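User: For documentation purposes, I need each entry recorded in a consistent format: the amino acid sequence on its own, followed directly by the corresponding structure tokens. There are two entries in this batch. Please keep commentary to a minimum and don't merge the entries.

Assistant: Recorded as requested. Entry 1:
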Amino acid sequence: MLPDSSAQFGEKPGNEPEEVKLQNASKQIVQNAILQAMRQVSQESQHREERISDSRGRIQLGVGELTKKHEKK
């Protein structure tokens, strides 16, 4: 049986080496940043779709008003 690699480096068994802790913390920071960026892009896309939908509604309303004006004549 091979000896525990953490014991090899003077670490107590069960304790993560400092480098592993830093790597895990870095991974967590990157994951959080990616999730935040994805949420932001999603929100911006949703807001853009809402603006497009609103402007289409206004255009359709304007066309309806023009049609009514022509019907009155």
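Entry 2:
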Amino acid sequence: MTSHVTDVLLANTDLLENEDLRTRIGKLSTHIDEIKGEIYHAVHEKYANYRPTRDSTQELHNKVQTLSTEMQTLSNKIKVKQQGDSTMEPAV
């Protein structure tokens, strides 16, 4: 059988351990919140820099597509014109 003093000391030890755990959990929670903030800031900054670049690249892509279509149309007209001219030439 344990003494009353031992029981009191063990009870106090449990309280201290629980308090220590609460303190650690609190510190970890604070640290997690700080890291969340850093991640949010980093992602936001990357996106803020990325978006104008993406928009500019999309605009350039659209211009290239339009130019490519115009070139293809012109090339087709030239081919049709050449085929029409070659059928009109007198046979030698």
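Summary note for entry 2:
Residues 4-88 form the longest helix (85 residues).
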